[in-house]
């Protein structure tokens, strides 16, 4: 098969629509269930590249949760702590495989953005991973294979309409890629840049120490950025992205957006949030929404007279700004990647507020000295990769 017809393109009025291979080449995918759409395939193919590279770079199973052609989360299969199991809503499940842990992390980093995601897995989907996917609102999944029982679990989602795609793990695309905009064809060499620890050797700050785990987090952030709509910044910690700022016009807005998401990830681990008592049978999405309101600027909406009774068994105490700041001050050793250079030290100032200690960015700004000085002020270690990672 070298062509797959789609219902429509980005929007219902955009017809006809299809994906196809030129010449006599076969499509490297098999649709095992459902009928994926235009945006589904964009998410699937970008996500597959991301997890494939994470697996190659770290040797660990990898997963990503994509929404609108940018990752909401990406992670490798490190074991979850008890707190992480709770904030990712998998504490009631049994032992998780490394692949299941990777998806729990990828989905859990920014659960608001991951709602209705398209999932990409680096390895054959196992039963433990399928059981997590089964209980989440998701549009589809792509993987190099599926265990028979896992496939049956997934095919039962969405009344049998869940999109399940199998990709040929050996598929190699042409070295030159094309896309068309306004009837005009663009051509460029594929971004085959290999991201590994060798990219982290040019450390330009007084602090030259980037431990092994921090190097893995920086690699995760950079590979994630390689498939995130630019401008983009990614915070990472513990084998996963914890905050991604995508598609912003200014670098500082990327840093602020990603930092806010990283802060929310850490605030979910605070005793006040972990101690919230939800009414029985409330769905995970409703819990996520309530937590987001509770830790955000609109916390009074969820605590208003009468409103909380539909969500909580007991009215929660107010989570004050001072309490949140005190908790966030405990967040440490966060890694930060940027797809292009930081033009001002204000990005580092914002990153410091979210516990960033390790930074990877291309360098090359006329104000590099100011950015380096700001890192030195906080004892951060920053490397210049010399490589830009724009993605459009």
Question: SSE layout and pairings?
Answer:
Blueprint: E1 3-5, E2 18-20, E3 29-33, H1 38-58, E4 62-67, E5 70-76, H2 82-87, H3 98-108, H4 111-114, E6 117-121, H5 127-134, E7 138-143, H6 148-155, E8 163-167, E9 176-181, E10 184-189, H7 212-226, E11 232-237, E12 240-246, H8 251-267, H9 271-274, H10 284-295, H11 299-303, H12 321-328, E13 334-338, H13 346-353, E14 356-361, H14 368-377, E15 381-384
Parallel strand pairs: 6-7, 7-8, 13-14, 14-15
Antiparallel strand pairs: 1-2, 3-8, 4-5, 4-6, 9-10, 11-12, 11-13
Helix pairs in contact: 1-7, 3-5, 5-6, 8-13
Concise account of the structure shown:
The chain is α/β, with parallel strands linked by helices and 392 residues long. 35% of the residues lie in helices and 20% in strands.
Strand order of the largest sheet: 3-8-7-6-4-5
SSE string, helices as H and strands as E: EEEHEEHHHEHEHEEEHEEHHHHHEHEHE
- Note the beta-strand portion: 15-25%
Number of helices: 14
Largest sheet: 6 strands, mixed
Mean pLDDT: 94
Using only C-alpha atoms, the radius of gyration works out to 21 Å
Derived structural class: alpha/beta
